[in-house]
User: Fold this.
Amino acid sequence: MLTIRDLKMTLGGRTLFENASFQVNYGDRVALVGPNGAGKSTLFSIILKQRDPDSGTIERDEWTMVGYLPQEGEAHGDESVLDVATGRVDELPRLEKRLQELEAAGNVSSPEYMESHAKHDALNDPQVETKAKKMLRGLGYKETDFNRKAREMSGGWIMRARLARLLVMEPDLLLLDEPTNHLDLVSLLWLQKYLKNYSGALLLISHDRQFMDEIVTQVHDISEKKLIAYTGNYSDFLVQREERYEQQVSAYKNQQKEIQSLQEFVDRFRSVTSKASQAMSKLKQIERIELIEKPVAPKKPFRFQIPQPPRGGQRAVSLRGIHMSYGTNTVYEGLDLTVERGERTVLVGPNGAGKSTLLKILAGVVEFQQGERDLGHNAKIGYFSQHRSATLDPDKTVLDEVMASAPLMREDEARGILGSFLFRKDEIFKKTDVLSGGEKTRLNLIKFLVDPPNLLLMDEPTTHLDIHTVESLTLALERYDGTLVFISHDVHFIRHLATKVLHVNDGKISPYVGGYDYFLEKTGGLEDERAALTAK
Assistant:
């Protein structure tokens, strides 16, 4: 289906790939992994023929239809959500125009013509609208959203609609770049189940360990400018990569020992007449050895000690008789909730159930119409919202923000933590107003970790983080002594942190005192909600 041979790619003066080879066959489910900047998205652009490599060959089966979901996107004009999902406003007319151009040029047997024709047929199917609605429901849209103008919605919701269109088209090879970034937990589980049964091949980039564990059967690691293949899911890859590293270290040490032994013989006997010819032979033997490069250890998550927050009262925060509405939309009516000190609570439930609203009520950042919110003794709240930029001073540098959050911290300590969260060298002097979404997320996390509150409220903290940073955050929060209430779609993150689950649905909250697996055992998880998404 797809074969890359001897790929070399240099970008910005840095070599990403050299003599790299890669293959995807029909039905394969492959995760592409590597640190930020390793070249994962660049490889996608090469496969999509958006970028030419310095050298190497890229071969695609001429019958293969390729579908691609980028990390970000936006809507134009007055197209509705359903228009985006069916492609009838932009994609279908574009394909029709391109087919006409290829026909006029006599290129009706070209791979591009065949692929464009297959995509056109998929979007011109009489059942395309029915299929699109099913996908939209699965990805969290309500029926009332279908005719809304897409440009009125956030970029994350637009990406869901574009993902729906890809699933409607059913490409032979589906390229997904961080597909879970904009999904809530229910939608993620729906997508996970759908992709498990997907008939085509999958090539994905993801920071979600559990998602990869559930779906992929191969992992290709970008390491040492090569693409190294491993069989199994992400957890299997971690074990095999460690074994490979240990084998490389052993081979390197043995070779160095052999070279040292030969060199010692040469140094000792090159001046001895009777041994000179043997010494020269040993020297030539050294020159013929194909040197093994000293292996680089696999990157490990960064561990550091979080300062312990001030001790709060037994009751961290409580809500009594809360009524909360947005206009005519009632979210909560008579809500009661108490969060105890030391609890680690995850909020789960369908999109629009009120999880983020509940977090905002607990944080005191929205006004409710009725009821009482009482903070516990000595409560110090930290609210990590989905809108990261609002909490950063645009005139401060990255380093300034961290130092201001922890005045007693030494600058070298701050630089060390910033480096572990991928702010390196001159990047720590960047002004916060020029940071990307992922950089703002990382910086806000650091600010919380260096001066933690005793009540930490976090709304999707892992979005836009790479897998190593997610693991570093998980390790840091595992050692956090305060109270944690969070929303996340990352099941691995939830499993490691949550000791209590609050299921939020239809304005009601059902508590489960136990981890995420306990919640699944007691309720069957989110199966009913997930099934309801596509029932209509």
Q: What stands out?
A: The chain has a mean pLDDT of 89.
